């Protein structure tokens, strides 16, 4: 549970997580599994691991590659992203500790490298997301802090300069953890679901709104498209001119208009 998954060359790469092992598989020298001393049944122990497993969806087979270098400590509820031929693992939880460390895994040689930032880093956290937004940049959002506080901050990390930079955005009042995130159009990042509470203590319900983070200035076509989609229902002149557009452009614009369609709740109000 609470693992991270990387995608590379049609492979799904799983790292870490919280799961169980039988007592016979645990030794005092084991560095890839930390037992949770509060959770066991007979000879079955739950705990945190730092294993790497690869799934090939074409062959339908699993493999456990031999990794090199110093791997991240066992953890769960961390975040991961892929940039080029490297996978990145950020933060996560082991026992009562929430970390802010960052590691990269070469997905060809399977070699781990710890990245030491050359700037101030975000505080340790778990249940956050990290999303690739360019060939050298990742976006971190939200999570649960070391003092169990739901967070709404955003950060950009440049893998070339090894610098973190806090990212200003309009959702500071929308803390989020246990959510999903993916790259969207024009390098946008779309966040959906999750919770705004510390779900182990209180859960007022899951979030169902989508947060769209704009990472860079949009091209002129996108700006025009958004303006039309937002205003076509209130500006008659726009509605009359839509049929004059080329079919391909009109189809794309109609998809965009549907994105801004008011919900039934909004319509009733």
TrEMBL record:
Entry annotated with the keyword Repeat: yes
Pfam families: Kelch_KLHDC2_KLHL20_DRC7
Ranges in coiled-coil conformation: none
Protein name listed in UniProt: Kelch domain containing 1
Lineage: superkingdom: Eukaryota
UniProt keyword Repeat, yes or no: yes
Organism: Poecilia formosa
Keywords, ordered alphabetically: Kelch repeat, Repeat
């Amino acid at each position: 549970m609470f693992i991270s998954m990387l995608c590379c060359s049609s492979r799904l790469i799983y790292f870490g997580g919280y799961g169980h092992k039988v007592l016979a598989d645990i030794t005092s020298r084991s560095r890839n599994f930390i037992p949770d001393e509060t959770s066991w049944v007979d000879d079955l122990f739950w705990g945190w691991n730092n294993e790497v497993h690869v799934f090939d969806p074409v062959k339908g087979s699993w493999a456990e590659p031999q990794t090199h270098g110093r791997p991240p400590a066992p953890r769960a509820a961390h975040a991961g992203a892929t940039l080029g031929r490297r996978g990145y693992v950020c933060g996560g939880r082991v026992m009562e500790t929430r970390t802010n460390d960052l590691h990269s895994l070469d997905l060809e040689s399977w070699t781990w490298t710890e990245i030491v930032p050359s700037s101030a880093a975000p505080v340790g956290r778990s249940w956050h997301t990290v999303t690739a937004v360019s060939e050298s940049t990742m976006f971190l959002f939200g999570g649960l802090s070391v003092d169990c506080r739901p967070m709404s901050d955003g950060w950009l990390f440049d893998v070339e300069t090894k610098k973190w930079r806090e990212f200003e955005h309009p959702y500071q009042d929308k803390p989020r953890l246990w959510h999903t995130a993916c790259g969207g159009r024009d390098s946008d990042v779309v966040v959906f679901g999750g919770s705004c509470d510390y779900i182990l203590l209180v859960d007022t319900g899951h979030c169902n709104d989508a947060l769209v983070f704009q990472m860079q200035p949009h091209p002129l076509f996108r700006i025009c498209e958004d303006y039309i989609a937002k205003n076509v229902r209130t500006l008659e002149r726009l509605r009359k001119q839509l049929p004059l557009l080329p079919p391909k452009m009109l189809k794309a614009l109609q998809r965009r208009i549907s994105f801004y369609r008011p919900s039934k709740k909004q319509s009733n109000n």
